[in-house]
Amino acid sequence: MEKPGEPETSVVLIITLLTDFGTADYYVAAMKGVILSRVPDARLVDISHSIAPQNVLSAAYVMLGSCNEFPVGTVHLAVVDPGVGSTRRGVILRTDRYLFVGPDNGLFSLAARQSAQAFEIQASSYLPEAISDTFHGRDIFAPIAAALACGAKPEELGRPLLTPQSLPPLAQTSDSGIQSRIIHIDGFGNAVTGIERGHLGAERLPARFELRVGDHVVRVQKRFYAEEPSVASEPFAIWGSLNFLEVSVTDGSAAEALRLSHGQPVTLRFT
Q1: What domains are there in the chain, each with its CATH number?
Q2: Is 209 helix (H, G, I), strand (E, B) or coil?
Q3: Which one of 5, 88, 139, 191 has the fewest CB atoms closer than 10 angstroms to its CB?
């Protein structure tokens, strides 16, 4: 109960959206329309709609980087869905802080690494009678996100799921080094690898290392992008803000300068 003289407080219903739909078509607007028709007071936050088409791993990385900054109770809705219309399941994940809604294809396996309760979405009164085979974001995931924001329990919307899909390991370690791949390329052209700081157990790479990516070998590590010596177009390794090892170049795009792409193999060797 509010004390006399104190301002009234209200529950803020936050739903985030992450897709590979872009903004040139009606897809994102249709999903928002479905949510606002059911939850007029919802606050919709766009994480990104510029994920490379069907790139689930890149979307998982972006979700990891953003989801934990939101208030407890936020519903995170993500649709990057190469398997739309197939037998792949729709999923709700519940952690101690958030609810995640989207296709069961590993999209949330970085953000919800800790124990999460999983539920396979089932037919219910919350869903429309007619469901498109090609737009589950509008017809399934948006209505479910709206229902959760209004207080519906995952148990009302689906059945327990013991083994939700997860992404393959991002890196394999050995005595001689680490094998990984490029998992994301950000808007500055930095190439994020699947090598995490925890794989090394150290703040910096060994003094002598080789990071092989594409046709290039990187032997320089920097703590921040402008650290000297600054040599134009020279590639270097740097720990990003999420503690993944990135490949960057000075004053430019590593992806363009080195012709890097999603999924490209990366090898870190200690020499």
Answers
A1: 14-160 (3.40.50.10790), 172-270 (2.40.30.90)
A2: strand
A3: 5
Mapped onto helix, strand or coil, the DSSP state of residue 237 is: strand
Q: Are 266 and 211 in contact (CB under 8 A)?
A: yes
Sequence-ordered list of residues with C-beta below 8 angstroms from that of 127, at least 6 positions apart, any chain: 139, 140, 143, 144
| Cα–Cα distance, 9 to 221 (Å, whole number) | 49
Q: Among residues 59, 56, 36, which one has the least CA distance to residue 48?
A: 59
Cβ contacts of 248 within 8 Å, gap of 6 or more? 188, 189, 190, 191, 222, 225, 235, 236, 237, 238, 254
pLDDT tens-place string over residues 108-154: 999 997 779 999 999 999 999 999 999 999 999 999 999 999 999 99
- Which of these, 200, 216, 100, lies nearest to 158 by C-alpha position? 100
Say what the pTM is.
Answer: 0.92
